[in-house]
Amino acid sequence: MTHSVVIIGSGFGGIGMAIRLRRAGIHDVVILEKAAGLGGTWRDNTYPGAACDIPSHLYSFSFERKTDWSRRFPPQPEILAYLRHCARKHGVLEKVRFGAEVTEARFDEDAALWRISTTGGELEARVLVSACGQLNRPAIPPIEGRDRFAGTSFHSARWDHGADLRGRRVAVIGTGASAIQIVPEIAERAAELRLFQRTAPYVIGKPDRPYRGWEKSVLRAVPGLYELNRARIYALYESRALGFVKYPQVMRLLEKRFRDTLRAGIADPRLREAVIPRYPMGCKRILISSDYYPALTRPNVDLITDPIERVTPSGVKTAGREYGADVIVYATGFRTTAFLSPMKIVGRGGRELNEAWRDGAQAHLGITVSGFPNLFLLYGPYTNLGHNSIIYMLESQFRYVLGCVEAIRRHGLDWIDVRADVQDAFTRDMRRRLRSTVWETGCQSWYMTADGKVVSNWPGFTFAYRRATRRPDPRHFNVRTRAACAPGVPPPGSGAS
């Protein structure tokens, strides 16, 4: 069966895009989800302490406000419950096909259709939207001997809740955003916890607390106050872009917060020295926690900075010694720069997306890829942030994609395909602007490809991105006009758009 729009993924991007399409009168939408439940990264990451590092009133859809968040920074279960609420309230839950992992999507140029193969069957779409995100494919480093470990091991995004850590020797490999939340939680249960650090992160205090009942009541009762509070938080976080992309000296203000957090959390000068990063602040993701540094000072916690040589059946071996372990937790992040992998995406002329991206992912405005008509990416290349809420960026992309879909329908088009020269000009501009950002000051981060190109981040203000994606520019696209309406697609002027 041919559908107007098929969306891959049911996280914030997929659910939000489906809601926007439905509100625009486009109801023939299918969401393909490989798992048994919706939620994307907030479904997958259920490790102890999992929470967002963006304030709750900003980490939510502007069109579905929530005044009763429990805390300033929302925990994982509450975020997942919010997404489920949005899907149910706006009538898109029934649009989700669970257990349908996409293996291939191939564009049929003659029929102007995306022919999609999934583990749950085949289907066709006039428009294909990828809402897979950047944080859904766990990365486990190829450490020698990893498969021979005799104990329990798992990635933080695939937490084994059947593993009882009480009284056990636990090794945590990695010191990124997941690790700084996990370590304080499990340090209270484990007999021994050894944290293996390759690169120290910058950690600043987390100004978190529960919302009081009267605060929730006032936000709910006073017209406009919720929106005003959201705007205040947005402006505060948006101002940090100055330090990331324009004036690195602004980072000194955050460096002071880092020093204050470090001094308050760790008294031992040797341990304090071991957790001081050796790269400019902001080059890697800045992390927030008020209990990570204190957790490192617990008598049952050891920070190991020697490089790992291999994993043995009984633990983790460094150049200095072997550390026994009953459980190994890989808090080693995600494969972030492959974007649509491991799906096979084939566009015009039989060209595969992996081939088109062999020198790094490229997409005009992070949304459209030349040679792949009627394909739209959410949270694609050059749209990640270091300073503000990704939900704001996604809502900008929803509007742009919706504008493209409505143009296809209104003007009776088979397809639209962004011009190669437009995409190339955008990519050159991104590369030029990124060279002056803090992300390209010498460190290796998950923002980069293996050869050192930053392909994930937007080098500017989020309001500038919103302006750039305000509406599709018809001059940016090659188009093919449809001679007659295809099955399943309402004719132009039918009122569906």
Automatic annotation (TrEMBL):
Family matches, as InterPro entries: FAD-bind_Monooxygenase_sf, FAD/NAD-bd_sf
Protein's name in the database: NAD(P)/FAD-dependent oxidoreductase
Source species: Actinomadura rubrisoli
